[in-house]
């Protein structure tokens, strides 16, 4: 339950902006200057040695999936208040493999006995598929590098990931080192890794280097350092080095990061021997955009986590990135066909919930409560069904184009049952869609409007969402179940000759009086109306529609009648075992509603 906000009478630190408006502010913008200390965060100077005036990334589009690298088990795990145990790690690893990840960072074995033990278990139990490369993270310290190599002993293939912070602020404030000191430390560590790799004969080894805090490091320095390390590791096209560029703390808009990535992409030595990777964090809430623009700018690989778990506001969400590609007709090369199982596994491993509005995976992301949205979705789904029927094919073969739904929920394992949910904001389209999808009831338009008004009153009164079962109950109360019906059709018999149908019916009307009636008409409903004249009911049929329904009670027939009676129009409905009974029942229902 969401906690109520503080009372307006309670003292608040909020200060409603009353400062001067900007000189360039348009007359229609009434915003005022705030008391927020924004001057503390002013930034000066470019993140590049010179402006990138000939940038190419804005002219490009995403056309293929990058290499996805999951860091759920390392970066994501480090951010948990309760780090994963072996069972949670195993469930996450197995999920990543089954989804199709080929590059999985499995831990930080030099910092954690749990990570070390998990890695040994994967290797000793031969749990790593032949086409999956595990990655292990290590800081730039010889003893931690040694411990990392102990952890990967016996692995068929692995990547050792060396990382050290390079930015001026970190060098001066955290480490008390100069740029040359940082470079010497990184190169000594890279050389130590190379020496240890020579003795790891049983393992096919590759290397990764991350200049942590890349996005706020002087570009010339990080380029010089990166080139030196790839040279020391003798990067070649058949044994490439992964150079990973993190926005360790996201500080700039995505276009700035794209410029930085493109500048590195253009200026790196041995570019054909480098897998250029990015590792965006989400401090500004733009990690997905930063990753997408970085790929346009030349990145080959993206590190992130499923649903974005990570320090502070998290890592980039690989599920969002991959399904963004999917929604554009691009193969994500990962399988998300059971999004709820994926989410449940990640929630179990992380012990954190995925937000109900999280893109693609949240409980509510394919759900519409608004009446206008519901109507558009219902019409879009109907159009898909119509096109499929015209083409003589399944709806899954028809190109997806439905308002408000960027992808077909069924493609990620969801059903249409929750696409439209009904509350006080809903309209006729939503009510009709739920009844049709849950119970097969295809109401005529006028009845939809009438029922929606009643549903809205119920929802307004209760202040909550109505389930499909509750919605069916409102429909039944209005059209099917009458506590004191003015008319009851107990039995009838039809006979037809030529274009005429005769009816012999037994009805109960008024104060419970039974009466046998006879009438004739062009069809059963016409004959019934003719017979009802004998009770003083001058019923005129405006429309009767119906269709077959199949439910737990078997195959039945639903009918909907619109009649005129005593100068008013009324709708009625009935569900029966045969068409004639349903149609006559719908007329009876409409009469009862007229006398309710």
From TrEMBL:
It is found in: Cytoplasm. Catalyzes the condensation of the acetyl group of acetyl-CoA with 3-methyl-2-oxobutanoate (2-ketoisovalerate) to form 3-carboxy-3-hydroxy-4-methylpentanoate (2-isopropylmalate). Keywords: Amino-acid biosynthesis, Branched-chain amino acid biosynthesis, Cytoplasm, Leucine biosynthesis, Magnesium, Metal-binding, Transferase. Belongs to the alpha-IPM synthase/homocitrate synthase family. LeuA type 2 subfamily. Coiled coil: none annotated. This is 2-isopropylmalate synthase. The keyword Transferase applies. Pathway: Amino-acid biosynthesis; L-leucine biosynthesis; L-leucine from 3-methyl-2-oxobutanoate: step 1/4. Its main location: cytoplasm. The keyword Cell membrane does not apply. It holds the Pfam family IPMS_D2. It catalyses: 3-methyl-2-oxobutanoate + acetyl-CoA + H2O = (2S)-2-isopropylmalate + CoA + H(+). Residues 66-340 form the Pyruvate carboxyltransferase domain. Its EC number is 2.3.3.13. Homodimer. Residues 1-24 are annotated as: Disordered. It is an enzyme of class 2 (transferase). Residues 482-596 are annotated as: Regulatory domain. It comes from the Bacteria. Its cofactor is Mg(2+). InterPro entries: 2-isopropylmalate_synth_dimer, AIPM/Hcit_synth_CS, Aldolase_TIM, IPM_Synthase, LeuA-like_post-cat, LeuA_allosteric_dom_sf, LeuA_N_DRE-TIM, PYR_CT. Mg(2+) binds at residues 75, 279, 281, 315.
């Amino acid at each position: 339950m969401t906690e109520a906000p503080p009372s307006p009478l309670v003292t608040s630190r909020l200060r409603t902006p009353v400062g001067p408006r900007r000189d360039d502010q348009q007359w229609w913008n009434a915003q005022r200057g705030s008391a927020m200390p924004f001057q503390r965060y002013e930034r000066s100077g470019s993140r590049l040695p010179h402006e990138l005036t000939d940038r190419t990334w804005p002219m490009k589009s995403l056309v293929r999936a990058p290499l996805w690298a999951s860091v759920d088990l390392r970066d994501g795990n480090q951010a948990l208040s309760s780090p994963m145990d072996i069972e949670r790690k195993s469930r996450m690893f197995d999920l990543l493999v089954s989804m199709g990840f080929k590059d999985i960072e499995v831990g930080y074995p030099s910092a954690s006995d749990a990570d070390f033990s998990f890695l040994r278990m994967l290797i000793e139990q031969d749990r790593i598929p032949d086409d999956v490369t595990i990655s292990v993270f290590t800081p730039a310290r010889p003893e931690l590098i040694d411990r990392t190599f102990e952890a990967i002993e016996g692995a068929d293939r692995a990547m050792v990931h060396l990382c050290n912070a390079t930015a001026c602020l970190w060098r001066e404030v955290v480490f008390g080192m100069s740029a040359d000191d940082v470079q010497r430390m990184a190169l000594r560590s890279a050389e130590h890794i190379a020496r240890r790799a020579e003795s790891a004969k049983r393992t096919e080894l590759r290397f990764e280097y991350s200049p942590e805090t890349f996005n706020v490091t002087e570009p010339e320095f990080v380029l010089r350092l990166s080139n030196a390390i790839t040279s020391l590791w003798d990067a070649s096209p058949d044994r490439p080095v992964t150079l990973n560029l993190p926005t360790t703390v996201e500080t700039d808009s995505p276009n700035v990061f794209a410029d930085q990535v493109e500048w590195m992409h253009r200026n790196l030595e041995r570019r054909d021997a480098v897998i250029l990777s990015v590792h965006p964090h989400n401090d500004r809430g733009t990690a997905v955009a930063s990753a997408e623009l970085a790929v346009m700018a030349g990145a080959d690989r993206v590190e992130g986590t499923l649903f974005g778990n990570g320090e502070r506001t998290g890592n980039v969400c690989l599920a969002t990135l991959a399904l963004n590609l999917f929604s554009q007709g691009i193969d994500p090369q990962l399988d998300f066909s059971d999004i709820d199982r994926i989410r449940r596994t990640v929630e179990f491993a992380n012990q954190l919930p995925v937000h109900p509005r999280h893109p693609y995976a949240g409980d509510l992301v394919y759900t519409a409560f608004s009446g206008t949205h519901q109507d558009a979705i219902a019409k879009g789904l109907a159009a898909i069904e119509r096109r499929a029927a015209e083409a003589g094919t399944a709806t899954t073969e028809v190109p997806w184009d439905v308002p408000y739904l960027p992808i077909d929920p069924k493609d990620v394992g969801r059903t249409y049952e929750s696409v439209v949910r009904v509350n006080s904001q809903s309209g006729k389209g939503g009510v009709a869609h739920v009844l049709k999808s849950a119970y097969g009831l295809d109401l005529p338009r006028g009845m939809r409007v009438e029922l929606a008004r009643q549903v809205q009153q119920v929802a307004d009164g209760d202040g909550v969402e109505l389930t499909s079962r509750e919605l069916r109950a409102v429909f039944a109360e209005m059209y099917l179940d009458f506590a004191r019906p003015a008319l009851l059709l107990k039995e009838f018999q039809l006979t037809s000759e030529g274009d005429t149908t005769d009816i012999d019916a037994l009805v109960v009307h008024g104060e419970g009086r039974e009466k046998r009636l006879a009438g004739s008409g062009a069809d059963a409903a016409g004959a019934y109306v003719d017979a009802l004249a004998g009770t003083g009911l001058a019923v005129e049929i405006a429309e009767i529609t119906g269709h077959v329904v199949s439910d737990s009670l078997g195959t039945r027939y639903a009918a909907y009648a619109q009649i005129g009676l005593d100068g008013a129009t009324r709708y009625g409905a009935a569900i029966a075992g045969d068409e004639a009974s349903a149609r006559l029942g719908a007329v009876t229902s409409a009469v009862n509603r007229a006398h309710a």
